[in-house]
Amino acid sequence: MSRERNAWLFPVSVLVALLLGLLPLPAWMQPFRPYWLALVIAYWLIEEPERIGLGIAFAAGLAADLAFGSLLGEQALRLTVLAFIVQRFRSQLRFFPIPQQALAIGGLLLNDRVVSAAVHLTIGEPRVPWAYWWAPLLGMLLWAPLFLLLDGLRLGRQK
After folding, report:
1. Has the keyword Oxidoreductase been applied to this entry (predicted)?
2. What is the DSSP string of the chain?
3. Residue 23 and residue 49: Cα distance in Å, rounded?
């Protein structure tokens, strides 16, 4: 019953993550933008692995590529790599306390930045600025509130 009642939550959370990624920020804040879509996909991969998998991560990445106007397939690759690692270590991540999960998510987001930098270097774009590496830290700090928010909505906590 709970799954059918909250079937709307996954697509809405992905849509909100895409919209947060499109939110205009001042130029000096752009490198600090957290990768909202990766955080949302990681949450769903940990909590609902029977519904969300590599294919969904790839499709969400393609949607993000189209929405953000980035290199087609770049975010799809990044989210698929992230999804593979989360699926591989899901049993460990699931039972970590939230602060340890946040550290692990920070490592995954850092790995995502490495993959993104490798893609950009491969296609001949200039090096990324140093501020580019701060976004995983911000994503790690946002993990706990995001996790608690989505968990509360998914489980439909009663008062």
Report:
1. no
2. -HHHHTTTHHHHHHHHHHHHHHS---GGGGGG---HHHHHHHHHHHH-TTT--HHHHHHHHHHHHHHHT--TTHHHHHHHHHHHHHHHTHHHHHHS-HHHHHHHHHHHHHHHHHHHHHHHHHTTPPPPPGGGGGHHHHHHHHHHHHHHHHHHHHHT---
3. 29
In whole angstroms, what is the distance from residue 21 CA to residue 15 CA? Answer: 10
What phi and psi, each to the nearest 5 degrees, are found at residue 158? -95, 150
Q: Which long-range contacts (CB under 8 A, 24 or more apart) does 87-94 make?
A: 87/45, 87/49, 87/53, 87/54, 90/45, 90/46, 90/49, 93/46, 94/46, 94/47
Tell me the C-alpha distance between 58 and 46, whole Å. Answer: 16
Whether pLDDT at 4 is above 80: no
Write down the residue that tokens 């990044």 correspond to: 78
Q: How many residues does the chain have?
A: 159
> pLDDT by residue (tens digit) across 56-103?
999 999 999 999 998 999 999 999 999 999 999 999 999 999 999 999
Single-letter amino acid, residue 106 = G
Query: What is d(CA 127, CA 51) in angstroms, rounded to the nearest whole number?
Result: 37
